[in-house]
Amino acid sequence: MKTVRDLLLGPILGGLGALLVWWAFPRVFVLFPDAWTVTRDEAVAIAFEEVRAFGDEVAEPYLSAQIDGPGQLDRRLQLAAAEVGVETIRSSRLGEHARPQWHVTLYPPEAASRAWSYQVAISLDGRVIGAIKRYDEDVETGILVDEDHAVERARDYLERRGLASTELDSE
Asked: pLDDT tens for residues 131-170?
C-alpha cells in the first residue's frame, strides 16, 4: 500500500520540474520569441499578400511553409548577449534573423524542386522579415534581369509598401 508521502512525491516533483523549466527556459533560450501568434495558415496568407505587393500573382502555386531556425548564428548571439545585453541583441536586425521564423516558398505549378518563384520570411509574430522574387536568367545573355527594369520594379514594390525608394539610383 502506498503511503501519503509516496502519493504526494510525484506531483511535488512534477511541479518543481515545471517551475524549473518556467524559470530556466528564457535564460537558456534568450532569443526565443516571446509571442508566437502566427499559425501556418496565417503565415501563408501574409506571404500571398507580400507576393501581391510585388505586383505579381502565382496561379495555383505549390507552396512549402515551415519554421526554420538560424543554427550557428543563434548560439553566437547568445554568447554575445553576455557582453552587450539580451535586449540589444533582440532589438537588432541580426537578432531578428536569429529567431525561428516561418519560411514560405511558392513554386509555379509543376515546377522542379529548386525552381521557386518567391520566398518570404515571416517572424512568429507576423512581421515580414524578407521577401525574394526569383528571376530566370536570360539564356542568350546570362543576365538575370536588366538593371533598369530591376530598379523600376524595386521602386514600384517599395512604393506599394509605403517605403522610400530614394536610394535606388541606377548608375
From this structure: 888 876 654 555 566 778 777 877 877 777 777 666 555 4
Written as nine digits, the cell of 49 is 499578400
C-alpha distance from residue 29 to each of 61, 77, 78, 81, 170 (Å)? 36, 11, 8, 11, 43
Residue 129, pLDDT score: 85
Residue whose entry in the numeric block shows the C-alpha cell 501519503: 4
Answer whether 64's CB lies under 8 Å from 121's CB: no
Q: Cell 504526494 appears where?
A: 8
State how far the alpha carbon of 32 is from the alpha carbons of 29, 52, 93, in Å: 6, 30, 15
Q: Dihedral, CA atoms, 155, 156, 161, 165, nearest 10 degrees? A: 20
Average pLDDT, the chain: 79
